[in-house]
Amino acid sequence: MTPATPGKAVPRHHVTPLQHLSVLVVDDNRHMLNLVKTILHAIGIKNVRLASDAAEAFNELKHCPADIIITDWNMAPLDGLDFVRLIRKGSDSPNPSVPIIMLTGRTEMRLVLEAHREGVNEVLAKPVSIEAIYSRIRAITDAAALPRIVN
Fold this sequence. Notes:
Structural class: alpha/beta
CATH architecture: 3-Layer(aba) Sandwich
Order of helices and strands: EHEHEHEHEH
Number of helices: 5
Strand content: 15-25%
Radius of gyration: 15 Å
C-alpha cells in the first residue's frame, strides 16, 4: 500500500501503464505544446508527439497512430472541433475511435455539450494542471480497460 500525501489522490490500481501510451498534442501555441508535453512526461508518458495545427496532426496520425489526442479548441485555420470532426467522420480517418481530450478556455455548458456531441471524450479547462490532465487520461484508460458486455 502506498502512503497517502494529504490532499493528493493516490491511484489504487494501474489498469494501463502510462509509459506505454502514445499521445499526440495539437496546439498552435508553442508554449502550450511544451507545457502539455512537460506535464505528460512528468506523469510518465514519454511517447509524446507535437503538432502545431490540425492538418499537421491529421497527417501525423496517418503515419504514426496515437493512443490519445490532446487538442486545443481555438486554432486556425481549422479549429479543434473541426479536427475532431475529421477524425470521427472523415472517410480517410486513420482511427475514428481514438480518445480525444479537448483543451479550452471556454467552458460554457453549451460548448462542452457540443464538443461531446462531436466525439470529444473529455473537455479540460485552461489553465491546465498536472492533476487535471492525469485524471482525464486515467479516466480514458480505465474506461478502455472495462470489460465489454456482449448480448
